[in-house]
């Protein structure tokens, strides 16, 4: 074993020990009882500080391990400090330089490992080298949004007690901004001086992430802005549920965001960070989420453009029409019931199930070309925006030349999902980004380029379904088993055209379409149909742009 560092130190109590740092980034020493301890610099060490001849290594380790066992993953995390006394000033200086130097050189070490795997010839490609260098390295300065009004209003407490101490241990500077009203984060992101920061963190549900993403996409320098990595800290962890309650909990997490005067709303859940952490077997906790940002690994994320005429909305999570959207928005009329309103209205909607006329045209991913019927050209021209030429205009794709297929209604529910989890307890699209995961397992270096950026959305379509079968189907939402139901069509698509229609049994009434917690359109006869929405209840088009945005991720 090769060592970067091997030096004598004194432990608390005066026992002499040898502290080593190997080339694979593992700190090792024997404690007072002679038990070998170790810390992974890359995975566990946050930072270090000195006082006199003492050096304190601050780390995030698994609870119950008593620290220093080299974290295996999957358990809860706790902050630990390991104090060593150097034998001299020269020894102290050497310890600090070697350990801090290793932390600072992680970007170069990681890329050197990849160079060995890929071979030097491939790395001569400037674009690949630039991408690899940009996808690693710990952040030094973060801009942090905290949403004090979402969910259980726990974001401020989570920031102060769970996030802030870890950032301080890691010597990371930050600017914190509490959101004061709906779309505040979008406004700030649109004009934020990004040169001052190495990343943006959202302490909230997914709603603030969506606002930030849309703000960045409206910037004049959007192409550069989207290289800024984004992170999410789950601020309203949801309890585990099973059976029908899983569906109910999911819908609750997607509840419509209200304006500031009526409380900010329940938000859009923690689907994004749950998907990221679950992909490596980590629990969805604030500690694991902030550690992912501190470690500095970054991955590309697909972004879907939803457009109707000159109106654009950029989605990173999901789009819903039918059952889920109805319960999400219409249950607001029973807000006086508290949390029970979701349970009550979900059961009511299942017992009085609606079906919607309409059609869904889609461009299937390879392997799904036989689903549906062939469809002729049904694409509207995607003209550049006249009012906002400086922002992102959407993907440049010749939609008319693509192979379109079509499914006709009536429909019970239609979902489009970008990532596997819709909330902490709901695996809405179990195969979302699964191809990326398989590539990563087979070729570890590809995790820098492909994860969460495969260029496809998962389409989940539910048609006529008996009520008892529907309840059974929904009981599988916690493990993704619902997609195996004979009443569900589950495929991957590159683009979608949704043409929503009226209710099958009430032709004078229509439905609701929402995306990432935002009501896009309210049809005739729907709850609060008099309110102005971003779009109208007519045909809309969705196209995914592969790897457009950047996320902090665990690996």
Q: How many DSSP H or I helices?
A: 14
Number of strands: 23
Mean pLDDT: 82
CATH architecture of the largest domain: Sandwich
Pairing-aware structural class of the strands and helices?
alpha+beta
Terminal residue distance? 25 Å
CATH topology-level name of the largest domain = Tumour Suppressor Smad4
Radius of gyration: 25 Å
Low-confidence stretches: 120-130, 238-246, 252-267, 438-450
Helical percentage = 25-40%
Keywords: ATP-binding, Kinase, Nucleotide-binding, Transferase
GO cellular component, one term: cytoplasm
Pfam families: DAGK_cat (PF00781), YegS_C (PF19279)
GO molecular function: ATP binding; lipid kinase activity
Summary, kept brief:
With 555 residues, the protein is an alpha+beta fold.
Structure description:
The protein has 555 residues and is an alpha+beta fold. It folds into three domains: 3-104, Pleckstrin-homology domain (PH domain)/Phosphotyrosine-binding domain (PTB) (PH-domain like), CATH 2.30.29.30; 129-298, Rossmann fold (3-Layer(aba) Sandwich); 303-384 and 398-548, Tumour Suppressor Smad4. The chain is 26% helix and 29% strand. The protein is built from 14 helices and 23 strands. The longest helix has 16 residues, at 89-104. It starts with a strand and ends with a strand. This is DAGKc domain-containing protein. Keywords: ATP-binding, Kinase, Nucleotide-binding, Transferase.
């Amino acid at each position: 074993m090769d060592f970067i560092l091997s030096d004598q130190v004194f432990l608390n109590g005066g026992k002499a020990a040898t502290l080593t740092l190997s080339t694979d980034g593992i700190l090792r020493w024997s404690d007072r009882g002679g038990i070998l301890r170790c810390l992974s610099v890359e995975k566990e060490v946050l930072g270090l500080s000195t006082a006199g001849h003492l050096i304190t290594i601050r780390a995030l380790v698994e609870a119950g391990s008593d620290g220093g066992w080299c974290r295996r993953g999957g358990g809860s995390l706790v902050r630990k400090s390991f104090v060593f006394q150097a034998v001299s000033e020269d020894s102290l200086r050497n310890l600090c330089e070697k350990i801090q130097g290793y932390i600072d050189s992680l970007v170069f070490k990681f890329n050197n490992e990849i160079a060995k795997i890929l071979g030097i010839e491939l790395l001569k490609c400037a674009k690949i080298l630039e991408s690899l260098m940009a996808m690693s390295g710990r952040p030094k300065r973060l801009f942090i949004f905290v949403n004090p009004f979402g969910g259980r209003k726990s974001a401020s407490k989570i920031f102060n007690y769970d996030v802030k101490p870890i950032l301080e241990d890691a010597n990371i500077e930050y600017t914190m901004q509490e959101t004061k009203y709906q779309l505040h984060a979008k406004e700030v992101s649109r004009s934020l001086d990004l040169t001052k920061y190495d990343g943006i963190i959202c302490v909230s549900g997914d709603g603030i992430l969506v606002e930030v993403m849309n703000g960045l996409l409206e910037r004049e320098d959007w192409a550069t802005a989207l290289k800024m990595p984004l992170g999410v800290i789950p601020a309203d962890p949801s309890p585990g549920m099973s059976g029908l309650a899983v569906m109910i909990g999911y819908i609750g997490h997607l509840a419509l965001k209200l304006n500031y005067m009526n409380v900010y709303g329940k938000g859009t859940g923690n689907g994004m960070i749950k998907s990221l952490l679950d992909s490596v077997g980590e629990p969805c906790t604030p500690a694991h989420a902030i550690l992912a940002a501190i470690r500095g690994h970054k991955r590309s994320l697909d972004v879907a453009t939803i457009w109707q005429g000159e109106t654009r909305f950029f989605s990173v999570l999901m789009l819903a029409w039918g059952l889920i959207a109805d319960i999400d928005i219409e249950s607001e009329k029973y807000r006086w019931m508290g949390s029970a309103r979701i349970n009550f209205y979900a059961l009511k909607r299942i017992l009085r199930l609606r079906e919607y006329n309409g059609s869904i045209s889609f461009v299937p991913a390879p392997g799904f070309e036989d689903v549906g019927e062939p469809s002729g050209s049904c694409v509207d021209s995607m003209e550049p925006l006249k009012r906002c030429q400086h922002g992102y205009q959407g993907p440049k794709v010749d939609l008319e030349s693509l192979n379109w297929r079509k499914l006709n209604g009536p429909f019970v529910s239609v979902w489009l999902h970008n990532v596997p989890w819709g909330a902490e307890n709901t695996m809405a699209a179990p195969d979302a980004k699964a191809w990326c995961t398989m590539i990563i397992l087979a070729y570890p270096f590809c995790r820098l380029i492909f994860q969460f950026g495969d260029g496809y959305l998962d389409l989940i379509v539910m048609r006529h379904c008996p009520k008892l079968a529907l309840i059974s189907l929904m009981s599988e939402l916690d493990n993704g088993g619902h997609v195996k139901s004979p009443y569900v069509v589950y495929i991957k698509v590159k683009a979608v055209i949704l043409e929503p229609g009226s209710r099958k049994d009430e032709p004078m009434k229509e439905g609701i379409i929402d995306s990432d917690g935002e009501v896009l359109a309210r049809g005739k006869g729907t709850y609060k149909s008099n309110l102005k929405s971003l779009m109208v209840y007519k045909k809309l088009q969705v196209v995914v742009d592969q790897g457009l945005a950047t996320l902090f991720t665990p690996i």
